[in-house]
Design goal:
24% helix, alpha+beta, ubp-family deubiquitinating enzyme fold, Peptidase_C19_UCH, 4-stranded antiparallel β-sheet, 262 residues
């Protein structure tokens, strides 16, 4: 809260401050209202976002998180002036930040190479017969066989070798956002197959190391793209969200209804 109060003294427009104001108003209001102060400043959040245009909800979320992270770093000279380890101590990183681990094992000398990447969410594809979120995560973390033209240059034996590669979650975030990729590469239509997901997700099978049982996530909200003519690049978004009592609501613009889907 101290950080946000300090940022509230900025002379220029601050998305993080505006978002705080929006959340406070939403928590106190019993009526729908337009977030016009944010909508009118969309280019400040993402360069290609525009008011009144068809936009992707996941893309907006990524722009919004990145913008809030940048605001947290601005008072310390910006991203280039702050050490990477210090960048991970911001409020936004504590909420959404985690780490992915890419591990490659050489089949010639058994050398193990680990590389780490910061993550703010997970984007998983829907391949083949996958019909549940867990199966999509299985595909996301499945071992990949590097061979042929895709052989691996091993630092251990200094040679191009066959190797196993696997992507896992090294450190899970406090708030986990998962986007199902329903775009079909090279095709016009949207991948509309049914994908089931649980209300409680155990992330431990997809972690780099065995966890302590704390990698359990409770479902809080689902954003759904309602397409038109099976198109992935335009349509309408609705949201299902849960209150603190465990009741689910369907939010469609200014219309909010109790949802019977639990």
């Amino acid at each position: 809260m101290t950080l946000i109060l300090v940022l509230g003294n900025r002379n220029d427009w601050c998305f993080l401050c505006e978002f705080e104001t929006h959340v406070e108003r939403a928590s106190q209001s019993l009526q729908a209202f337009s977030p016009i102060n944010i909508l009118s400043r969309l280019p400040n959040i993402g360069g290609n976002l525009g008011y009144g245009r068809q936009e992707d909800a996941h893309e907006f979320m990524r722009f919004a998180i990145d913008t809030m992270q940048s605001i947290c770093l601005d008072d310390f000279g910006g991203e280039k002036a702050v050490e990477p380890s210090s960048q991970e101590t911001t409020l936004i990183q504590h909420i959404f930040g985690g780490h992915l681990q890419s591990q490659v094992i050489c089949t010639k000398c058994n050398n193990v190479s680990n590389q780490y990447e910061n993550m703010m969410d997970l984007t998983v594809e829907i391949h083949g017969d996958a019909s549940s979120l867990e199966e999509c995560l299985d595909q996301f973390t499945v071992k990949e066989w590097l061979h042929g033209e895709n052989m691996y240059k091993c630092d251990g034996c200094n040679d191009y070798v066959k190797a196993w590669k696997r992507l896992t979650v090294k450190r899970a975030p406090n708030i986990l956002t998962i986007a199902l990729k329903r775009f079909q590469s090279g095709r016009f239509g949207k991948l509309n197959k049914r994908v089931m997901f649980p209300e409680t997700l155990d992330l431990s099978p997809y972690m780099s190391e065995a966890g302590d049982g704390t990698d359990l996530y409770k479902l809080y909200a689902v954003v759904v793209h309602v397409d038109m003519l099976n198109a992935s690049f335009f349509g309408h978004y609705i949201c299902y969200t849960k209150d603190f009592r465990g009741n689910w609501y369907r939010i469609d613009d200014c219309k909010v209804d109790i949802s019977l889907v639990a």
